[in-house]
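Changelog note: in this version the structure field was regenerated for every chain. One regenerated record is shown below for reference.
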Amino acid sequence: MAAPASPAVEENEPKETPLPYAGIRVVEFTHMVMGPTCGMLLGDLGAEVIKVEPPEGDNTRRLLGSGAGFFPTFNRNKKSIALDLKTPEGALAALRLIATADIVSENFKPGTMKKLGLDYETLKDRHPRLVYVSHKGFLPGPYDHRTALDEVVQMMGGLAYMTGRSGDPLRAGTSVNDIMGGMFGAIGAMAALRQRGLTGRGMEVQSALFENNVFLVAQHMMQFAATGQAAAPMPSRISAWGVYDVFTVKDGEQVFLAAVSDRQWAVFCQAFGLGNLLADPRLKTNNDRVRAREWMMPMLRAHLAGRSAADLSAVFEANELPFAPIVRPEQLFDDPHLNATGGLAPVRMNDGHLSKVPLMPFTLGGRRPGIRLQPPLLGEHSRELLLELGYGDDAIAALQRSHRS
């Protein structure tokens, strides 16, 4: 008698592909932006990320002003467990949780984790496969005792000088070092996991704000190395391109327009009836136009001043020339490209209402890694995780009482 036929499987039936870090557990002791960014990236890529919070919660749940959006932005795809690490009971629960982890991530001040008995040196012998990511202001060295903030390292690392006008250093308009420092921490964790696969042993990964900032301004350092001339701040820099500017046009609107190659220059001149400039031998190459900017740019500004930003944008787009409207952050919620491509996803805000948040700026197999877990409520997963660690109901109640005492 023939064996029963297997159920037919449609060849084109979609199969759910596991995310690359599915099965990896991350326990994070983080707050603010840098450490949470690392966990968010790993969580977006499929890791189970457990956020250990104090009983009163991560302080970013309560920030106002420019920090009001920190928690929902950087804490999706995570679980929350509330533990008082200053109590023996809370510290013991943290150690039991760490014993189940592939990665531990922290961004407390130097020495804090050591006081809690949760530093890498204390843990590595007991957990030789552990990858331990420390996010700090500075890598070990003469500065590592200093308290660092994004703005501090922007000032001391040349970025504020390059962003502001001469004599007026200005921080960049977002937490660039915090965010990128967290990303580099995640990249380091990924590399350490790969190394663990080869050697069977974990390691400590260190990421730092100051060194991240120096990496960002390396192009300006190397400009000096190549030319012997110090880079001027961005508002007064000598542009590398002949046309690469914000133009103020009809009704006071502004638009960024660029022509960065000889071909683009020719297209630009033809599109706007500037045949005389295209034929001018003084403007033949991009470098010629850079040297001629002092007299060329006023002519271009005057020629375009009577046209609207929308009209100029349409001409630039039709001719495949670089352009950009000047957009405020809040306008991006309605950006047609972001909305059409799935670049924004619904996220739960601190007060419970839903907004949209940008997802990671890359795709895997044509899809953006999405939100599997909304930013957690404080302690939302405490009971679930403690039960998994072997705590019974009475032990969980006693632990919670110790946090309140």
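Spot check on this record: Residues 54 and 306 are 59 Å apart (CA to CA). DSSP finds 18 helices and eleven strands in the chain.
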